[in-house]
Fold these 2 entries.
Entry 1:
Amino acid sequence: QVQLQESGPGLVKASETLTLTCTVSGGSIRSHYWSWIRQSPGKGLEWIGYMYYSGSTNYNPSLKSRVNILVDVSKNQFSLRLNSVTAADTAIYYCARFWGVTGVLNAFDIWGQGTMVTVSS
Amino acid sequence: DIQMTQSPSSVSTVVGDTVTITCRASQGSGSWLAWYQQKPGKAPKLLISAASSLQSGVPSRFSGSGSGTDFTLTISTLQPEDFATYYCQQANSFPITFGQGTRLEIK
């Protein structure tokens, strides 16, 4: 079955760019939409955005000016880039499959284990 | 953005009880409402999508209902493994938003 695994640095300096990668195994990245979600004690669960392998994306307006979600079809991976990070971006970052039982995308049915990212000053 | 408000924030109960968690949307969110269970140190797990569609492999003691602005998650005959935090999430309009969570604790 499809599994997701996040990877990337656990520590990022303030004002720099956070880059995480999600590797999709057990299925093709072409088959679904893929998303990034983060979780922090202060803001709970926050949807960051989603992408399709064609390059189509949709971002949370609260982060839109700083975020990019990119795909590498050859590696079956997608990545998150969040620039100009601050302490408020400290969180557990999850990648997830955006899915819908009726074909209408409406839930996240498969999640990675999550990776903790701390922004240091 | 649609604000999702869950109640209660926490509930203490015992094995065998039935518990109902409510999620209210600040605007009508159709039926695109999902429920997740999260245990410490783990990613959220999808239980229910489209308000009432039980995910494959999820026990039938979990059920969801509602539409528009008011939704409920009911867990019947609580089992020890059900003690966790539960979140609702709407996808009727972007950005997708989550509730703040309901912590289910053993009394």
Note: The CA atoms of residues 50 and 102 of chain A lie 19 Å apart.
Entry 2:
Amino acid sequence: EIVLTQSPGTLSLSPGERATLSCRVSQSVHSDFLAWYQQKPGQAPRLFIYAASTRATGIADRFSGSGSGTEFTLTISRLEPEDFAVYFCQHYGGSLWTFGQGTKVEIK
Amino acid sequence: QVQLQESGPGLVKPSETLSLTCSVSDRSIRSYYWSWIRQSPEKGLEWIGYIYHSGSSSYNPSLRGRVSMSFDTSKDQFSLRLTSVTAADTAVYYCARHSNTWRYFDYWGQGTPVTVSS
């Protein structure tokens, strides 16, 4: 079973700063099968990035995804107040969908 | 845009069966795959299983045969049954729609909390 490990667990940053979130996969995967979600308190996760680097509908271009193989990254170029939330990576493979444990981006 | 709404009991006794329903706001229920996903502090986000209107389904092996899903296209709904529940099944349960490529989840319900306790 593929395991997704996200780091750091918590990222403390100020508005306007750059955020870099990591998702490490336990074995090499195709980038088409990697996605990122944002979740705010009391809400469901929302699809932000799919196929590792494609923004979902309505997602601001300050969000970008990159990576391949076992290392994937979500970058927020300049944090806006509404970006402080928890971000999850997700992988599909072998009829199984798995999630990372999440990175919380909090206001410093 | 499509809306999903989970419904069902918020409290289930240990060893009993958890039953939830997801209502879909439009007729797209016949065109997509649909999943149940749960979230708890202990396990994080966990995919439970998917179903298609044809009846095709697949479940997470970790749930060891306790899961079943069904469809009611006349009501634009699909359902989850989880048997022999324990405290470890306490979580927020979400229904979600698979994207066109079925690799991701592009629409989610708001989630419904379920507690397993006597």
Note: The first strand of chain B starts at residue 4 and ends at 7.
